[in-house]
Amino acid sequence: MDAASMRVVVVGAGAVGGYFGGRLAEAGEDVVFFARGEHLDALRRTGLRVESPKGDLVLSKVQATDDVADVEAADLVLVCVKAWQVPDVATTIQPFVGPNTAVLPLQNGVEAADHLAVVLGRDRVLVGLCKILCMIVGPGHIRHMGVHPRVLLGEVDNRSSDRVRAIMGAFERARVAVENPPDVGVALWEKFLLIASLGGVGAVTRSSTGVIRSVPESRALLQEAMQEIAAVATARGHALPGDGVSRALKFIDAMPEGATASMQRDIMEGRPSELESQNGAVVRLGSAAGVDTPVHRFIHGALLPMEMAARG
What we know:
Layout: E1 7-11, H1 15-26, E2 30-34, H2 37-46, E3 48-51, E4 57-59, E5 63-65, E6 76-79, H3 86-92, E7 102-105, H4 112-120, E8 127-138, E9 141-154, H5 162-173, E10 177-179, H6 184-205, H7 209-214, H8 216-235, H9 244-253, H10 262-268, H11 279-289, H12 294-310
Parallel strand pairs: 1-2, 1-6, 2-5, 3-9, 6-7, 9-10
Antiparallel strand pairs: 3-4, 8-9
Helix pairs in contact: 3-4, 6-8, 6-9, 6-10, 6-12, 8-9, 8-11, 11-12
């Protein structure tokens, strides 16, 4: 990978892909958005707009396509689709994943890298996650509402590598906080502990983060959900720090009063969601590891009828 520039394909131009892809393009990286539908039309017609407390961004012209034939082999592929779309996307993106391409998933959940590796090969795939609170306002229009944007990434086995350093350099040039944690698997589960619990409790209660954290009963439910994920992570070989739950609650206490998780918004608005990749995954992975997860089993069961309706 060239230290001075990087060819980046952003797969999924929604909130996450739009924000981080936009910042990389603004910084001069060679970014192509692989998108579809209204987002693709808007990107081609008027470009990309990002509202952010870190500074607004308007790119009147961006590279965007839905045809794999238009995309050359990339240095970096950012996979920013919803978690449940990853297995299908892995097959779609094969044509522009070359021998020197690094594929970085930035989904909620803990299984995206495994899904990608099945199709693309383990040596092509990194483990990654992002921390940001953002949403789609409209086609080609993203709003960053809170949380200091950050990308964490690493090799599956946590070894040091030139490609990780090169990718970090690209994000640094884009003034995006980036980190290669000592154990990226632990970092992935730490985020999962927060987002799956908050999204699940938020969807069940139909309440904002500010309400959930201030009502003692819903706050207790949130804490119990986090403790279950910590137990599953440990059973699967990713022992989280002893203060992981308390730090997650502290993070939630600092979030904007009206914040909601993306899975919660999808369920409440009748769209297909990441339920199976979040609360469903906790139940499934917990069962395989011999860990009971009654809170997540309740959340999954309560939300499943709405998920099924959204999927027809």
